[in-house]
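Late entry, written up from scratch paper. The run itself happened at the end of the previous shift, but nothing got recorded in the book at the time, so transcribing now.
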Amino acid sequence: MSAFDNNPFADPVDVNPFQDPSVTQVTGTDTIEEYNPFSARTLDNLNGVTIPISASTQPAVLHPTVVPSPQATAAAAQAELLKQQAELERKAAELERKEQELQNRDRDTTGRGKENNWPPLPRFFPIKPCFYQDFNEEIPPEFQRVCKMLYYLWMYHCVTLFLNLLACLVYFTANTAGGVDFGLSILWFILFTPGAFICWYRPVYKAFRSDSSFSFFFYFFIFAFQVIVYIIQSVGIPRWGNSGWIISISMIRTNLAVAVFMLVVAGFFTVNAVLAVMLLKMVHSKYRRTEASFEKAQQEFSLGVISNRTFQTAATTAASSAFQ
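Output as recorded:
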């Protein structure tokens, strides 16, 4: 009850915590020595490790920062712009030079400084090469594979026509009614071998070489017709000069050996048709990545007709005749 007898409104008694007997007992003893970091004992505990003291007695000097003037900054920027402009002009001149070389190759075969190398005929042969062809030099790297595949397709096309001629000859020896097919097979070999090279291979070669829109459209038109011809040849309608499936199957009962040879040629025609469709799609996908368009093809055709010497001569003759 003595705890409740204290007056709560009286001033609190100041209590010194350091007067506590337990505290005074601890602080009164001399068990804790004064720690001196510079004493000999402390230095001995460093195990002989010494801290090197810099021998430099020179005062630190703060160099002033050099701020370029606005005139110097403008001069440096102008020099950089002039350097970039000179580099761009050099690249433009290089591109113009290459474009001029390509145009010269198209216009004049003798002025390009390179002889025609296709077809690769011996020098003593009376007929000289008619075209210049170099995939690595004239065709961009991204189009070389497709262009070479089209060239191989043309070679396969020629081999197929030659085998078709032999098959029709064998068919004519086994059946006298096959004389018409043999005669037409000779005609197809003579016409379609150089015709395919000039009508659809060279246009696509020129299209990839110079990014010509007119050559692309000309190739698409002719090659689509070539695909239809391949399909007709693989079918093998009698008296059309093609050793296709129909005429080959009809010879099985008559002469099995002749029928087998004609079936092989029919397979060649079928592979021709399949490869032609695949390459047509590949060329079209490459064409869509270029800058070619129908409007550009019209402009190229107009410029080509106007700049053609034959057209100019005919127009001049017609105008003079009309004037007279």
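The chain has a mean pLDDT of 78.
(Scratch paper discarded after transcription.)
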